[in-house]
Amino acid sequence: MSVIVEIAVDPIGTCTTSVGDFIAPIVKALQDAGLNVNVGPMGTSVELKSIDEVGGLLKLVHDTAYRLGVKRIVSTVRIDDRRDKDETMEYKVKRATGKA
Asked: Is the pTM of this model over 0.70?
């Protein structure tokens, strides 16, 4: 079954209010890791195979931000761990928009 994780990363201590220059390399690192990534305006969703992979996902995100020079990171995480049926991010969006 799939686990969908939404993460919003707030880099702190960067001397700028803009976050795009920090988020883009994080998204690339997730994609380079072979993850299915969906970037939204307020957070990024990622599909994982199991709940066991959440820690690795968060470590990758934070390690990437620290390598970019971010001094402090605050992340907000939401996890959709549904085990009775397999749902993808694409399916959930189609259902929510009446296109499924």
From this structure: yes
On the question of pLDDT at 49 being above 80, the answer is yes
CA-wise closest residue to 11 among 1, 28, 26, 29: 26
Q: What is the pLDDT of residues 69-92, one digit of tens each?
A: 999 999 999 999 998 988 999 999
Of residues 46, 40, 52, 38, the one with CA closest to residue 83: 52
All structural domains of the chain, each given as residue ranges with its CATH number in brackets, are: 3-96 (3.30.70.930)
Task: State the DSSP H helix or E strand holding residue 45, giving kind and residue range, or none if neither.
Answer: strand 44-48
Q: How far are the Cα atoms of 27, 69, 98 from residue 3, in angstroms, in the given order?
A: 18, 30, 22
